[in-house]
Specification:
The chain is mostly helical and 413 residues long. It is built from 19 helices and no strands. Helix 14 crosses helix 17.
Length: 413
């Protein structure tokens, strides 16, 4: 958290602490709300606050429906939404609830603490890098499942990858979501996988999909037992073939085979022959990417470095501006002073709404019956009244005209 927002956070906390005892029940809340409304505009404030409370309540109801959590089971999730919004995550309360619903649906192994931390990071990431929350959660879940890393490491790798240009073709997260399980099966770590992607981006590959596809092709051919694969492997050294045979016997990984094969290909004097062997093992994607890019990606197994804490830095920068600090104070004041009022009053408003829903149709029907029964009488009375009023107005006009003529007659004579 940046120093600016930290100061704002403390200021907001100090401002709210002196007000919190002003209302401890619904009656006190209504008095506080009434005083606030009277101070800044009366009924318009009531209308705006009621509308905002209603929208927030609707967002929470939507979240409950999307997650299937109700009652006491939902309270912890509701608290997570409130904390995230209070701490200035998301552009709106609705965006926070929508993000949290997506995280709950796509992430299957987060405890309450990690859930809040990850959702906040995901919201910051989407805002900073113009990403889709669903792609973030899909990619992170598959990273955690495939490589055994935690949510924080996944987000640090995403942030560093985006900062270093891995999203140059706009498909980093989508590719990670699709291919992380494959690279995990091949024996790569999450850091090694991102190291390959980073070197590929630096080498100028057309898009990340090519990088992932060429490795997918290799892992298929490495174990398919085809004549083409055997012929290609037969042209390599005994030591390389031993690594391959160990893998086939269950004593190695695809990543070890790929690294050994590419290292030998890179060291061959006859690069035409090396290219022919490579196409036999990696398919035509080797030709699409070209040897230099492949050597750059797989000639070393070096993992991505310097990614630790990247999301903390992103969050710190996000909250460092003056506008963000002012908005943060507003969020704190709203959530600590105003929101609890709505939280207490809304149940009563909901009861009233339910009462109207249950009783209003009957009242309307009674009104219709009364109109049908007494409508003609009322219409006749109304018509008579209007006619009577018109006659009175005509008489008054005649009287005024007569008086005027009478007053002018002596002067005319």
């Amino acid at each position: 958290m940046s120093k600016v927002f930290e100061i704002a956070f403390k200021l907001g906390g100090e401002l709210t602490s002196s007000f919190k005892n002003a209302f401890s029940d619904a009656d006190g809340a209504m008095k506080m709300l009434g005083a606030a409304a009277a101070a800044v505009g009366g009924t318009a404030v009531f209308a705006n606050l009621a509308s905002q409370f209603g929208e927030m309540d609707a967002s929470l109801s939507q979240l409950s429906a999307q997650t299937g959590l109700i009652g006491e089971d939902f309270e912890a999730l509701k608290g997570t939404v409130e904390n995230l919004f209070r701490n200035n995550y998301g552009e709106s309360f609705d965006e926070v609830t929508a993000a949290l619903a997506n995280v709950k649906q796509n992430m299957h192994s987060l405890n309450d603490v990690d859930l809040e931390q990850f959702t906040g990071d995901a919201l910051s990431f989407t805002k900073t890098f113009d990403a889709d929350i669903n792609e973030v959660t899909r990619a992170a879940n598959n990273m955690m499942t495939a490589f055994g890393v935690n949510a924080s490491t996944s987000m640090d790798l995403f942030a560093t990858g985006a900062q270093r240009g891995l999203n140059f073709s706009g498909e980093m997260l989508d590719n990670v979501a699709e291919y992380a399980p494959l690279f995990g099966e091949m024996g790569y770590s999450a850091e090694e996988y991102f190291g390959i992607l980073e070197r590929g981006a630096q080498a100028g590959v057309y898009n990340l999909d090519y990088v992932n596809d060429v490795m997918k092709e290799f892992q298929i051919r490495a174990k398919d037992g085809s004549k083409a694969t055997n012929d290609a492997m037969g042209q390599l050294s005994d030591s390389t073939q031993q690594v391959w045979n160990d893998f086939l016997a269950g004593n190695g990984t695809v990543s070890e085979v790929a690294s050994t094969v590419v290292s030998e290909l890179q060291g061959m004097e006859d690069q035409v022959a090396a290219n022919q062997i490579a196409v036999g093992l990696f398919g035509t994607k080797w030709e699409d990417l070209e040897a230099d890019a492949m050597y750059a990606m797989l000639g070393t197994s070096e993992a991505m470095r310097g990614f630790e804490g990247a999301m903390d830095t992103v969050n710190q920068i996000q909250f460092s501006s003056f506008n963000s600090a002012i908005q943060g104070i507003g969020r704190i004041l709203f959530m600590d002073l105003v929101y609890p009022i709505g939280d207490m009053v809304l149940p009563y408003l909901n009861d009233f709404a339910n009462y109207l829903s249950n009783n209003l149709p009957g009242a309307i029907e009674q009104g219709k019956a009364a109109i049908q029964q007494f409508g003609p009488i009322a219409l006749a009375v109304g018509t008579a009244f209007i006619t009577y009023k018109g006659v009175l107005q005509g008489v008054a006009l005649y009287q005024k005209t007569f008086n005027l003529v009478q007053a002018l007659t002596p002067k005319l004579l």
